[in-house]
Amino acid sequence: MPMTTPELLSPAGNLEKLKFAVAYGADAVYCSLKDFGMRASSDNFTPEELSDGIAFARGKGVKVYLTLNIMPSEAMIQELPAVLDSIKDSIPDAFIISDPGVMETVLRAFPDAVIHLSTQASVVNAEGCRFWHKNGVKRIVLARELTLKDIKNIRQNLPDDLELEAFVHGAMCISYSGRCLLSHYFTGRNANEGRCAQPCRWKYYVKEEKRPDDVITAEEFSEGTYIFSSRDTCMLGHLDDLLDAGIDSLKIEGRIKSAYYTACVTNAYRMALNDRLAGKPFDGAYIEEVEGVSHREYHTGFYYDNTGENANTVTMPGYICEKPFYCSVMSYDEVTQLAQCRQRNKMVKGSAAQLLTPGKTGKDIFIDKIFDADMNEIESAPHPKMVFYIKVPGAKAGDIIRGK
Ligand code: SF4
């Protein structure tokens, strides 16, 4: 089994999430500008924020990839040259594209640009990979519908300098690598332009044509029917299989998820990868870490079951909520052991909590006292973004304090 370390690639839905991803162990992050990036509902980046994010990440040896992977209409693609011009002073380490017209436009603006082919292009065989490589693509983000056996076969038929990336964690959807018309039809929001309203997650009823007023619940669970709602992928406990298949970059989905999600999931995969490199066995505590972020029921996607064997949809309804992200640590005083914190969710005196530090699993702590910015003792920290102090021995700037 090869002992190479793959790239850990994390989502950066905004500048803050980019910084958390970097602090918690990403080798690279991917992000978008306001348009063209397949996640229109994320905060995304202004050109100035992108420039700041690239400078910050590069300062820590981390790469930044810009997603331009929508399928733009003729009208939309006309706007792309101006968008590219707005980032010409700070060019990302790679551009993730799925449309050949976008690729042409990027290469016209930046002839030396590194191009990664998005999963939206649905590449599922070595012939397809070689086609794109011959046309200047350095990395293929494989379709999410491939098994590990498929990936291994593809890898064996590729030149060594063509990289393979695969989604290993996060939301999946019932359509083929995201190509879907449901949302556009139901809501006018085009999924292929990054505006999916996720109608596959809605609750559906059955009607008989002669009884239009009779709405019947098709009961998969007592809460309703979610037969089109895919489970989330989690391959954290299967890194050896991913690497044995020849994947160079492990991608975490979730640009719309919270900064806490970004930090916690990146941290869990980073610890597991570092352990693997050190020859240590997999630590089951890392699974508990990713169980504590917002997610649907986890599964191994299509890596072990092909799409004809398992639709990979949920077997229980709903979203599993994440542990509350109480605050982030801004600074720490070794003498007083007081951490200066910025509030994210209301924290009350007397709470059991956990301290999350990069490279470690959550450590139990107890919030026995809270002080406001003037060091008056208070019962809780209720206000968004308020600055307050708590005693947390050994905390560091950048740590996260979360609920238990
Ligand atoms: S509606 Fe559902 S299946 Fe279709 S693109 Fe959106 S998330 Fe995917």
What's this entry about, in short?
The chain is an alpha/beta fold. Helices cover 24% and strands 24% of the residues. It has two domains: 7-176 and 229-299, Aldolase class I (TIM Barrel); 325-403, Translation factors (Elongation Factor Tu (Ef-tu), domain 3, Beta Barrel), CATH 2.40.30.10.
Walk me through this protein's architecture.
This protein has eleven helices and 22 strands. With about 400 residues, it is an alpha/beta fold. The chain has two domains: about 5-175 and about 230-300, Aldolase class I (TIM Barrel, Alpha-Beta Barrel), CATH 3.20.20.70; about 325-404, Elongation Factor Tu (Ef-tu), domain 3 (Beta Barrel). The strands form four sheets. It has an eight-stranded parallel beta barrel with strand order 1-2-3-4-5-6-7-11, surrounded by five helices. An eight-stranded antiparallel β-sheet has the order 17-16-22-13-14-21-18-19, with no helix packed on it. Strand 13 (about 325-335) and strand 14 form a beta hairpin. Helix 1 (about 15-25) runs parallel beside helix 10 (about 260-275). It is globular and about 65 Å long. It starts with 6 loop residues before the first strand and ends with a strand. The model has no long low-confidence stretch (mean pLDDT about 95). Bound molecules: iron/sulfur cluster (SF4). The site of iron/sulfur cluster has 12 residues, from helix 8.
